[in-house]
Write a structure and sequence with these properties.
Shape: elongated
Number of helices: 4
Structural class: alpha+beta
Helix content: 40-55%
Oligomer: single chain
Distance between the termini: 65 Å
Radius of gyration: 25 Å
Number of domains: 2
Length: 140
């Protein structure tokens, strides 16, 4: 008997043949010999577990998936950098509004404000998300 296993997001993890493999994962799904061979030989798509069945997604869709993963990864990194930048200026916005920042704090506050603005615009860069010109973290 032939089996195929997928991760929680439906991505192909492995193929198993009961004549070869002593242990088959409990999450593996039994499939026909024909489908088993197709998942090995057909390289024009990605095999996934979708709506309770094994499906092949065209490479055009695969390219879109990779693109959306790149975008999501870049935006997640941007959000991490924004959170780190926010920590560098905690409480400074109120102090700025009422004029309580000294020269060093004023420089820091404005430098991080510019940095955060640049981070929020990375998705507007030509070539995003394949190519990203990350802004430099303020130093000083």
């Amino acid at each position: 008997m032939k089996y195929i296993d997928f991760d929680a997001s439906g991505e192909l993890l492995g193929r198993y043949d009961s004549a070869i493999h002593a242990q088959i994962p409990a999450t593996a799904v039994e499939i026909s010999d024909e489908l088993f061979l197709r998942t090995i030989e057909e390289r024009d798509g990605l095999w996934k577990w979708t709506a309770g069945k094994v499906t092949k997604h065209s490479l055009a869709n695969a390219t879109q998936l990779v693109e959306s993963e790149r975008r999501a990864s870049a935006l997640a990194r941007r959000d991490e950098l924004l959170a780190e930048a926010d920590q560098q200026t905690v409480g400074m916005a109120d102090a700025y509004i009422v004029g309580l920042l000294d020269d060093d704090d004023m420089w820091r506050f404005k430098a991080y404000a510019g940095y955060k603005l640049a981070l929020n615009k990375i998705d507007k860069q030509p070539g995003f998300p394949q190519s990203i010109n990350w802004p430099a973290v303020p130093v000083g």
